[in-house]
Specification:
By secondary structure, the protein is of the alpha/beta class. The strands form 3 sheets. An 8-stranded parallel barrel has the order 1-2-3-8-9-10-11-12, surrounded by 6 helices. It binds NADP nicotinamide-adenine-dinucleotide phosphate.
Protein backbone atom coordinates (compact mmCIF):
# COMPACT_ATOMS: atom_id res chain seq x y z
CA UNK A 1 0.00 0.00 0.00
CA UNK A 2 1.37 3.42 -0.92
CA UNK A 3 1.96 5.70 2.06
CA UNK A 4 0.17 9.01 1.46
CA UNK A 5 1.87 12.22 2.53
CA UNK A 6 0.18 13.07 5.78
CA UNK A 7 -0.13 16.23 7.78
CA UNK A 8 0.92 15.31 11.33
CA UNK A 9 -0.05 18.16 13.62
CA UNK A 10 1.55 18.40 17.03
CA UNK A 11 -0.59 17.53 20.01
CA UNK A 12 -1.00 20.90 21.67
CA UNK A 13 2.32 22.23 22.98
CA UNK A 14 3.68 18.71 23.52
CA UNK A 15 6.44 17.14 21.46
CA UNK A 16 4.09 14.49 20.04
CA UNK A 17 2.90 14.51 16.45
CA UNK A 18 -0.22 12.59 15.48
CA UNK A 19 -1.93 12.03 12.12
CA UNK A 20 -5.39 13.56 11.48
CA UNK A 21 -6.93 10.11 12.01
CA UNK A 22 -5.59 7.90 14.79
CA UNK A 23 -6.39 4.26 15.50
CA UNK A 24 -8.89 3.79 18.34
CA UNK A 25 -8.32 0.35 19.85
CA UNK A 26 -11.38 0.11 22.11
CA UNK A 27 -13.35 -2.24 19.82
CA UNK A 28 -10.35 -4.59 19.61
CA UNK A 29 -11.09 -5.47 23.25
CA UNK A 30 -14.42 -7.09 22.26
CA UNK A 31 -17.02 -7.03 25.07
CA UNK A 32 -19.31 -4.06 24.40
CA UNK A 33 -18.42 -4.37 20.69
CA UNK A 34 -19.02 -8.09 20.26
CA UNK A 35 -16.33 -10.71 19.70
CA UNK A 36 -13.08 -9.71 18.00
CA UNK A 37 -10.81 -11.99 16.02
CA UNK A 38 -7.46 -11.24 17.67
CA UNK A 39 -5.28 -12.02 14.64
CA UNK A 40 -7.44 -9.77 12.47
CA UNK A 41 -7.17 -7.01 15.07
CA UNK A 42 -3.38 -7.25 15.18
CA UNK A 43 -3.21 -7.21 11.37
CA UNK A 44 -5.37 -4.07 11.35
CA UNK A 45 -3.03 -2.38 13.82
CA UNK A 46 0.10 -3.40 11.89
CA UNK A 47 -1.33 -2.05 8.64
CA UNK A 48 -2.26 1.21 10.36
CA UNK A 49 1.19 1.74 11.92
CA UNK A 50 2.95 0.98 8.66
CA UNK A 51 0.83 3.35 6.60
CA UNK A 52 0.84 6.52 8.65
CA UNK A 53 -2.02 5.89 11.10
CA UNK A 54 0.73 5.34 13.62
CA UNK A 55 -0.85 6.87 16.74
CA UNK A 56 -2.94 4.36 18.69
CA UNK A 57 -5.36 5.15 21.47
CA UNK A 58 -6.12 2.41 23.96
CA UNK A 59 -6.92 2.00 27.68
CA UNK A 60 -6.39 -0.67 30.33
CA UNK A 61 -10.16 -1.06 30.74
CA UNK A 62 -10.75 -1.82 27.02
CA UNK A 63 -11.33 -5.58 27.08
CA UNK A 64 -9.87 -5.60 30.59
CA UNK A 65 -6.28 -5.48 29.32
CA UNK A 66 -6.87 -7.26 25.98
CA UNK A 67 -6.76 -4.12 23.81
CA UNK A 68 -3.37 -3.09 25.28
CA UNK A 69 -2.00 -6.62 24.81
CA UNK A 70 -3.02 -6.65 21.13
CA UNK A 71 -1.43 -3.23 20.65
CA UNK A 72 1.73 -4.65 22.27
CA UNK A 73 1.75 -7.53 19.75
CA UNK A 74 1.42 -5.15 16.81
CA UNK A 75 4.25 -2.96 18.12
CA UNK A 76 6.82 -5.77 17.78
CA UNK A 77 9.31 -4.65 15.14
CA UNK A 78 7.45 -1.33 14.68
CA UNK A 79 7.91 0.33 18.04
CA UNK A 80 9.94 3.27 16.72
CA UNK A 81 7.20 4.28 14.30
CA UNK A 82 4.30 4.25 16.76
CA UNK A 83 2.84 6.77 19.18
CA UNK A 84 1.17 4.87 22.03
CA UNK A 85 -1.61 6.65 23.90
CA UNK A 86 -3.28 4.97 26.85
CA UNK A 87 -5.18 5.99 29.96
CA UNK A 88 -5.46 5.66 33.72
CA UNK A 89 -8.31 6.06 36.16
CA UNK A 90 -10.89 3.37 35.35
CA UNK A 91 -10.24 0.11 37.18
CA UNK A 92 -11.94 -3.24 37.04
CA UNK A 93 -9.10 -5.14 38.73
CA UNK A 94 -8.16 -5.27 42.39
CA UNK A 95 -10.66 -5.66 45.16
CA UNK A 96 -14.08 -4.13 44.65
CA UNK A 97 -15.80 -3.17 47.88
CA UNK A 98 -19.59 -2.87 47.53
CA UNK A 99 -20.66 0.66 48.38
CA UNK A 100 -17.28 2.18 47.33
CA UNK A 101 -18.24 5.73 46.22
CA UNK A 102 -15.74 5.36 43.35
CA UNK A 103 -18.13 2.83 41.75
CA UNK A 104 -20.80 5.51 41.35
CA UNK A 105 -21.64 6.67 37.84
CA UNK A 106 -19.69 3.97 36.00
CA UNK A 107 -21.68 1.10 34.50
CA UNK A 108 -20.39 -2.47 34.84
CA UNK A 109 -18.59 -3.45 31.64
CA UNK A 110 -18.66 -6.59 29.55
CA UNK A 111 -15.28 -8.30 29.16
CA UNK A 112 -14.05 -10.31 26.16
CA UNK A 113 -14.93 -13.54 28.00
CA UNK A 114 -18.58 -12.47 28.35
CA UNK A 115 -18.34 -11.63 32.05
CA UNK A 116 -19.66 -8.28 33.26
CA UNK A 117 -17.47 -6.61 35.90
CA UNK A 118 -17.97 -3.46 37.95
CA UNK A 119 -15.66 -0.58 37.04
CA UNK A 120 -14.63 2.18 39.40
CA UNK A 121 -13.06 5.59 38.93
CA UNK A 122 -9.76 5.59 40.78
CA UNK A 123 -7.20 8.32 40.25
CA UNK A 124 -5.39 8.05 43.56
CA UNK A 125 -1.62 8.39 43.06
CA UNK A 126 -0.84 4.81 44.17
CA UNK A 127 -3.46 3.48 41.77
CA UNK A 128 -2.06 5.58 38.90
CA UNK A 129 1.44 4.21 39.51
CA UNK A 130 0.19 0.61 39.53
CA UNK A 131 -1.81 1.17 36.36
CA UNK A 132 1.07 2.69 34.42
CA UNK A 133 3.36 -0.20 35.41
CA UNK A 134 0.72 -2.72 34.32
CA UNK A 135 0.21 -0.89 30.99
CA UNK A 136 3.95 -0.79 30.30
CA UNK A 137 4.03 -4.55 30.77
CA UNK A 138 0.96 -5.32 28.65
CA UNK A 139 2.17 -3.03 25.88
CA UNK A 140 5.73 -4.38 26.13
CA UNK A 141 7.27 -0.91 26.03
CA UNK A 142 9.58 1.07 28.29
CA UNK A 143 7.83 4.37 27.89
CA UNK A 144 4.30 5.42 26.92
CA UNK A 145 4.04 8.53 24.74
CA UNK A 146 0.75 9.81 26.18
CA UNK A 147 -1.12 8.88 29.35
CA UNK A 148 -4.59 10.41 29.76
CA UNK A 149 -6.83 10.52 32.83
CA UNK A 150 -9.78 8.52 31.43
CA UNK A 151 -12.51 10.17 33.51
CA UNK A 152 -12.47 12.45 36.51
CA UNK A 153 -12.47 10.72 39.91
CA UNK A 154 -14.38 13.20 42.10
CA UNK A 155 -12.99 11.59 45.25
CA UNK A 156 -9.34 12.39 44.52
CA UNK A 157 -8.03 15.96 44.21
CA UNK A 158 -6.97 16.52 40.61
CA UNK A 159 -3.67 18.04 41.71
CA UNK A 160 -2.71 14.73 43.41
CA UNK A 161 -3.42 12.69 40.27
CA UNK A 162 -1.52 15.12 38.06
CA UNK A 163 1.34 15.18 40.58
CA UNK A 164 1.65 11.39 40.26
CA UNK A 165 1.68 11.68 36.47
CA UNK A 166 4.38 14.37 36.61
CA UNK A 167 6.51 12.04 38.77
CA UNK A 168 6.06 9.23 36.25
CA UNK A 169 7.09 11.67 33.53
CA UNK A 170 10.24 12.62 35.44
CA UNK A 171 10.97 8.90 35.90
CA UNK A 172 10.79 8.49 32.11
CA UNK A 173 7.89 6.04 32.15
CA UNK A 174 5.56 8.41 30.30
CA UNK A 175 6.31 11.25 27.90
CA UNK A 176 3.20 13.45 27.88
CA UNK A 177 0.05 13.94 29.95
CA UNK A 178 -3.55 14.31 28.73
CA UNK A 179 -7.10 14.20 30.07
CA UNK A 180 -10.40 12.82 28.81
CA UNK A 181 -14.08 13.60 29.36
CA UNK A 182 -13.20 16.69 31.45
CA UNK A 183 -15.25 19.86 31.84
CA UNK A 184 -13.73 23.16 30.72
CA UNK A 185 -13.09 24.07 34.37
CA UNK A 186 -11.27 20.76 34.96
CA UNK A 187 -9.15 21.32 31.84
CA UNK A 188 -8.26 24.82 33.08
CA UNK A 189 -7.33 23.41 36.50
CA UNK A 190 -5.16 20.75 34.84
CA UNK A 191 -3.31 23.35 32.75
CA UNK A 192 -2.53 25.35 35.90
CA UNK A 193 -1.49 22.31 37.95
CA UNK A 194 0.89 20.99 35.28
CA UNK A 195 2.58 24.27 34.30
CA UNK A 196 5.25 24.65 32.98
CA UNK A 197 4.65 21.13 31.60
CA UNK A 198 1.94 21.49 28.94
CA UNK A 199 -1.35 19.61 29.02
CA UNK A 200 -0.88 17.71 25.76
CA UNK A 201 -4.45 16.78 25.01
CA UNK A 202 -8.10 16.57 25.87
CA UNK A 203 -9.99 13.53 24.56
CA UNK A 204 -13.66 14.33 24.03
CA UNK A 205 -16.87 13.33 22.28
CA UNK A 206 -17.39 15.16 18.98
CA UNK A 207 -18.81 14.40 15.56
CA UNK A 208 -21.62 15.20 13.12
CA UNK A 209 -24.15 13.76 15.57
CA UNK A 210 -22.58 15.32 18.68
CA UNK A 211 -21.48 18.91 18.15
CA UNK A 212 -21.82 20.16 21.73
CA UNK A 213 -18.04 20.53 22.12
CA UNK A 214 -18.16 23.44 19.63
CA UNK A 215 -19.66 25.62 22.37
CA UNK A 216 -16.90 25.51 24.96
CA UNK A 217 -14.40 22.64 24.82
CA UNK A 218 -13.04 23.03 21.28
CA UNK A 219 -12.71 26.85 21.52
CA UNK A 220 -10.91 26.35 24.85
CA UNK A 221 -8.51 23.84 23.27
CA UNK A 222 -7.73 26.30 20.46
CA UNK A 223 -7.26 29.21 22.84
CA UNK A 224 -5.08 27.29 25.29
CA UNK A 225 -3.19 25.30 22.65
CA UNK A 226 -4.30 21.93 24.00
CA UNK A 227 -4.50 19.10 21.46
CA UNK A 228 -7.83 17.32 21.02
CA UNK A 229 -8.45 13.66 20.23
CA UNK A 230 -12.11 13.20 19.42
CA UNK A 231 -14.19 10.05 19.57
CA UNK A 232 -17.73 9.44 18.30
CA UNK A 233 -17.06 10.64 14.73
CA UNK A 234 -18.34 7.39 13.20
CA UNK A 235 -21.01 6.93 15.88
CA UNK A 236 -19.81 3.40 16.58
CA UNK A 237 -19.97 2.49 12.90
CA UNK A 238 -23.42 3.95 12.14
CA UNK A 239 -21.96 6.83 10.11
CA UNK A 240 -20.14 4.49 7.75
CA UNK A 241 -23.39 3.69 5.90
CA UNK A 242 -22.83 0.01 6.64
CA UNK A 243 -25.31 -0.39 9.46
CA UNK A 244 -28.49 -1.00 7.48
CA UNK A 245 -31.87 -2.33 8.66
CA UNK A 246 -30.91 -5.99 8.24
CA UNK A 247 -27.79 -5.81 10.44
CA UNK A 248 -28.47 -7.32 13.87
CA UNK A 249 -26.40 -7.07 17.02
CA UNK A 250 -26.19 -9.66 19.77
CA UNK A 251 -28.33 -8.41 22.65
CA UNK A 252 -25.29 -8.37 24.98
CA UNK A 253 -23.53 -5.89 22.67
CA UNK A 254 -23.77 -2.26 23.69
CA UNK A 255 -24.84 -1.15 20.23
CA UNK A 256 -27.99 -3.28 20.45
CA UNK A 257 -29.29 -0.82 23.06
CA UNK A 258 -27.86 2.40 21.66
CA UNK A 259 -30.68 4.86 20.81
CA UNK A 260 -29.06 5.91 17.53
CA UNK A 261 -29.06 2.26 16.39
CA UNK A 262 -32.82 1.74 16.70
CA UNK A 263 -34.55 0.99 13.39
CA UNK A 264 -36.13 4.38 12.69
CA UNK A 265 -32.92 6.22 13.50
CA UNK A 266 -30.83 3.95 11.27
CA UNK A 267 -33.27 4.76 8.48
CA UNK A 268 -33.00 8.53 9.06
CA UNK A 269 -29.19 8.47 9.29
CA UNK A 270 -28.76 6.29 6.21
CA UNK A 271 -31.09 8.55 4.23
CA UNK A 272 -28.77 11.52 4.93
CA UNK A 273 -25.67 9.44 4.18
CA UNK A 274 -27.15 8.23 0.89
CA UNK A 275 -28.48 11.59 -0.26
CA UNK A 276 -25.74 13.94 0.90
CA UNK A 277 -22.55 12.12 1.90
CA UNK A 278 -22.43 9.33 -0.69
CA UNK A 279 -22.24 11.76 -3.68
CA UNK A 280 -19.29 13.51 -2.00
CA UNK A 281 -17.64 10.11 -1.40
CA UNK A 282 -18.14 9.19 -5.07
CA UNK A 283 -16.64 12.50 -6.19
CA UNK A 284 -13.50 11.76 -4.16
CA UNK A 285 -13.47 7.99 -4.91
CA UNK A 286 -13.57 7.08 -1.26
CA UNK A 287 -15.95 5.62 1.30
CA UNK A 288 -18.65 7.37 3.31
CA UNK A 289 -16.57 6.66 6.43
CA UNK A 290 -13.59 8.53 4.96
CA UNK A 291 -15.74 11.59 4.19
CA UNK A 292 -17.24 11.63 7.69
CA UNK A 293 -13.81 11.28 9.30
CA UNK A 294 -12.32 13.99 7.06
CA UNK A 295 -15.22 16.33 7.89
CA UNK A 296 -14.60 15.83 11.61
CA UNK A 297 -10.81 16.07 11.39
CA UNK A 298 -11.04 19.46 9.63
CA UNK A 299 -13.35 21.01 12.24
CA UNK A 300 -11.87 23.96 14.13
CA UNK A 301 -10.14 22.87 17.32
CA UNK A 302 -9.89 19.19 16.37
CA UNK A 303 -6.32 17.87 16.25
CA UNK A 304 -7.13 14.27 15.44
CA UNK A 305 -10.06 11.88 15.15
CA UNK A 306 -10.00 8.44 16.77
CA UNK A 307 -11.49 5.80 14.48
CA UNK A 308 -12.09 2.30 15.75
CA UNK A 309 -11.28 -0.04 12.88
CA UNK A 310 -11.40 -3.80 13.52
CA UNK A 311 -10.07 -5.14 10.23
CA UNK A 312 -7.41 -4.22 7.66
CA UNK A 313 -10.21 -3.32 5.23
CA UNK A 314 -11.64 -0.75 7.65
CA UNK A 315 -8.13 0.66 8.26
CA UNK A 316 -7.66 1.16 4.51
CA UNK A 317 -10.91 3.12 4.30
CA UNK A 318 -10.15 5.22 7.36
CA UNK A 319 -6.58 5.97 6.26
CA UNK A 320 -7.91 7.70 3.17
CA UNK A 321 -9.49 10.36 5.40
CA UNK A 322 -6.07 11.65 6.47
CA UNK A 323 -5.26 12.89 2.98
CA UNK A 324 -8.80 13.94 2.01
CA UNK A 325 -9.52 17.67 1.84
CA UNK A 326 -13.22 18.46 1.48
CA UNK A 327 -14.24 21.67 -0.26
CA UNK A 328 -15.99 24.29 1.90
CA UNK A 329 -19.31 23.78 0.07
CA UNK A 330 -19.11 20.02 0.62
CA UNK A 331 -18.48 20.57 4.31
CA UNK A 332 -21.38 23.02 4.51
CA UNK A 333 -23.82 20.65 2.73
CA UNK A 334 -22.93 17.80 5.09
CA UNK A 335 -23.17 20.01 8.17
CA UNK A 336 -26.57 21.39 7.14
CA UNK A 337 -27.98 17.91 6.41
CA UNK A 338 -26.99 16.64 9.85
CA UNK A 339 -28.34 19.80 11.49
CA UNK A 340 -31.75 19.00 9.98
CA UNK A 341 -31.58 15.39 11.15
CA UNK A 342 -33.44 14.54 14.36
CA UNK A 343 -32.87 11.23 16.10
CA UNK A 344 -35.54 9.68 18.31
CA UNK A 345 -34.62 9.28 21.98
CA UNK A 346 -34.16 5.72 23.25
CA UNK A 347 -36.93 3.73 24.97
CA UNK A 348 -35.70 4.65 28.48
CA UNK A 349 -35.47 8.40 27.78
CA UNK A 350 -36.91 10.78 30.35
CA UNK A 351 -39.42 13.57 29.85
CA UNK A 352 -36.73 16.23 29.43
CA UNK A 353 -35.08 14.35 26.56
CA UNK A 354 -38.46 13.94 24.84
CA UNK A 355 -39.32 17.60 25.35
CA UNK A 356 -35.96 18.63 23.89
CA UNK A 357 -36.60 16.35 20.91
CA UNK A 358 -40.14 17.66 20.33
CA UNK A 359 -39.30 21.34 20.76
CA UNK A 360 -36.33 21.23 18.37
CA UNK A 361 -38.43 19.89 15.51
N1 LIG B 1 -12.28 8.59 26.29
C1 LIG B 1 -13.40 7.94 26.18
O1 LIG B 1 -14.23 7.91 27.10
C2 LIG B 1 -13.70 7.20 24.91
C3 LIG B 1 -15.00 6.73 24.66
C4 LIG B 1 -15.23 6.06 23.46
C5 LIG B 1 -14.18 5.88 22.56
N2 LIG B 1 -12.93 6.34 22.84
C6 LIG B 1 -11.80 6.15 21.90
O2 LIG B 1 -12.22 6.50 20.62
C7 LIG B 1 -12.07 5.39 19.72
C8 LIG B 1 -13.21 5.38 18.73
O3 LIG B 1 -14.41 5.12 19.46
P1 LIG B 1 -15.84 5.50 18.91
O4 LIG B 1 -16.78 5.42 20.04
O5 LIG B 1 -15.72 6.77 18.13
O6 LIG B 1 -16.10 4.29 17.97
P2 LIG B 1 -16.14 4.25 16.41
O7 LIG B 1 -14.79 4.41 15.87
O8 LIG B 1 -17.23 5.17 16.00
O9 LIG B 1 -16.72 2.79 16.24
C9 LIG B 1 -15.95 1.66 16.13
C10 LIG B 1 -16.71 0.75 15.19
O10 LIG B 1 -16.79 1.42 13.96
C11 LIG B 1 -16.80 0.48 12.93
N3 LIG B 1 -15.90 0.96 11.88
C12 LIG B 1 -14.76 1.65 11.99
N4 LIG B 1 -14.27 1.93 10.76
C13 LIG B 1 -15.15 1.43 9.88
C14 LIG B 1 -15.24 1.41 8.48
N5 LIG B 1 -14.31 1.99 7.71
N6 LIG B 1 -16.30 0.79 7.90
C15 LIG B 1 -17.26 0.21 8.66
N7 LIG B 1 -17.23 0.20 9.99
C16 LIG B 1 -16.19 0.80 10.60
C17 LIG B 1 -16.42 -0.87 13.50
O11 LIG B 1 -17.67 -1.54 13.49
P3 LIG B 1 -17.90 -3.10 13.39
O12 LIG B 1 -17.75 -3.57 14.79
O13 LIG B 1 -19.30 -3.13 12.93
O14 LIG B 1 -16.92 -3.66 12.44
C18 LIG B 1 -16.01 -0.56 14.93
O15 LIG B 1 -16.47 -1.49 15.85
C19 LIG B 1 -12.05 4.18 20.65
O16 LIG B 1 -11.40 3.07 20.04
C20 LIG B 1 -11.29 4.72 21.82
O17 LIG B 1 -9.91 4.73 21.51
C21 LIG B 1 -12.70 7.01 24.00
Amino acid sequence: METPRLRTPSLGRSLLHVPPVCFGAYALGGGYWGPQDEQEGVRALELAIENGMHAIDTAPVYGFGLSERLVGRALKGRRERAVVMTKVGLRWDGSIVPGDPRLAGVKPQLGPDGRKLPVRRDSRPESIRQEVDASLERLGVERIELVQIHARDPHTPLVETLGALLELRRAGKIAEIGVSNFTAAEVAESIRALAPVPLASHQLHYGLLARGAERELLPQALREDVGTLVFGALEQGLLTGKVRAQRSFDEREGRARRPSFQARNRQRVNAVLDEVVAPVARAHSCSIAAVVLAWTAASPGVTSVLAGARSPEQVRENLRASSLALAEDERARIRAAFERLRLLPGPGAGLRTWLRYLLRR
